[in-house]
Amino acid sequence: MTQAERDALVNAFYQLRNGADLINDLATFHSDFFNFDNTADPTRLDIHFNLPDEPERDIFFAWHRMQMFEVEQAMQDINPNISIPYWDSTVDQSVNSPLWDENFMGQFDDDWGLNRNLGGNGELGTIAELNTLLGISDYLIFSDDTERGNIHAGPHRWTGGAMPTTASPRDPVFYLHHTFIDKVWADWEAIHQNSSFIRTSMLRYDGTYVFDGQTLPLVNPNNIIDPRAFGVFYAEDGLAVLDDYTVSNTYNAIENFYYQFLIEVRDGFEIPANTSCRITSVNEIVMLPGFVAASGSDFRAQIDNTQARTSGSSIVRNTKKFEALPSMRMVDFEGKKLGDDSSDIEVYPNPFLESVNIRLGQNTHSGRIVLYNMAGQQVKSEVFRDKSVLNLNDLRNLASGVYILNVVDNNGVVLHKVQLIKS
Amino acid sequence: MISLRFIIVTGLLFLWQEPCLMQQTLVVRVVNNTNEELNNVMIYSTPFGQIKPMDSTAFITLKNIQNEVKNPMLYLSCKNINMGSYVSLPKDVDTIYFLINEVKIDKRLIVFKQIEIK
């Protein structure tokens, strides 16, 4: 994040507490409807820790996705460039992290009397735990294990103060944490495409709740399984991919996609006539074949140079970050064909058990295949020369979960990157 | 709407996590150090019922801890307001006292101390 983005987010949190105080309302609501299993009527609809026989046991992910969207919408009314960033607590685990700087989330501890105790209780989740979750195929088991395990509950306990309580939305870092949980769900759904909901309405978002004079909409969780339903995309490793989305202006008069680093607009991203869209990067935007801005649409792609002025420096852009990015242009996270024949790659079967077959494109004949686990550790590597079909064997002993397969040319450039599942 | 959500900071830190070995039984006692009546007290999915002001529960033995800690929460109701808090997961512990020292109803906050005896 640029300092300007940090400042905008911090300011928005402060402003949300003006007037009707959305932060306090969300915290109170979250607490009051957290769980009723301890009460005389345990069958009441609630948000958390539902048991296998409770009908709302599937509601954890969807409810918090809507909660994040409610807050983000309120922030974008203040500043349309704001998105809630995510705190990846599996890698960002230090109490000295910039996350907790006094000019970022740290200031709220005193200002809002949160009484945090960073690292004082319990452990944060690990990449291995996340990997295990992403390997679960049953949605209800995935949801239950995520909620009760260290990936979700860990940061609540670890942060201390309001975070371990049912009123955890009092702490701004709650929203950064639950945006990460939302990303975990999005990543899981991209792999398994198996989310399903029994209930068709949700507490607070059931069409009856009124906040600050406005009735909040009724939300069917089955309609928000893909975060694109809210126009949300998750960026990772300095790359934001916009694809398979049609601008509709359903929630904003101008749909505004803002990111500090590289934005790639890809196949299936469409801006129809009579819709408005802005794509803004501090660094670079790449339009790839398949992107369509129709005649009659209001579309602008722009580089935000104001970031430099905001910080008082002429160099805010993270140019170093981009030195590694060109090799990711042809990244394929789904194992399906990309672009023209020269960039083709097919990897099968996926999920795999014992071996993986890789069919390379016409222009790739020599190089190296490298398989990484989600901890970034290399688990397999093979050199190939003058081949169009490769086989990676002896994979049976790998742990179940998600792996990344890279095809690297002789110059060390990553030509293809494919996400695989070991079943 | 629209958003591009992104990670805040980067930097890898891999920590070795000790295996969390849960024992088969755990004895729990809840002490109410407040001047309020606490109702619907529940810890690790085990009900402790009502606790009068400045009173405590009996020692209650929890079995099948592996299942109980899947709901690592302390819940209670005070003046008809239900609230709760995550609690630390027991590690190689025989007995836990939960000392509830204050209930801040307006903040939905339970001030408590967890004392573990090995």
Short description:
With 423 residues, chain A is α/β, with parallel strands linked by helices.
Spell out the helices and strands of chain A N to C.
HHHHHHHHEEEEEEEEEEEEHHEEEEEEE
Rounded to the nearest angstrom, the distance between the terminal CA atoms of chain B is: 53 Å
* Class by SSE composition of chain B: mainly beta
CATH superfamily of the largest domain in chain A: Di-copper center containing domain from catechol oxidase
Most extensive interface: pair and counts?
A-B, 70 and 41 residues
Report the C-alpha radius of gyration of chain A, rounded: 22 Å
What's the architecture of the largest domain in chain A, going by CATH? Orthogonal Bundle
Number of helices of chain A: 10
User: How many strands appear in the DSSP assignment of chain A?
Assistant: 19
Characterize the main sheet of chain A: 4 strands, antiparallel
Task: Write the element-wise H/E pattern of chain B from the N-terminal end onward.
Answer: EEEEEHEEEE
Structural class of chain A: alpha/beta
Oligomer: heterodimer
Global morphology of chain A: globular
CATH class of chain B: Mainly Beta
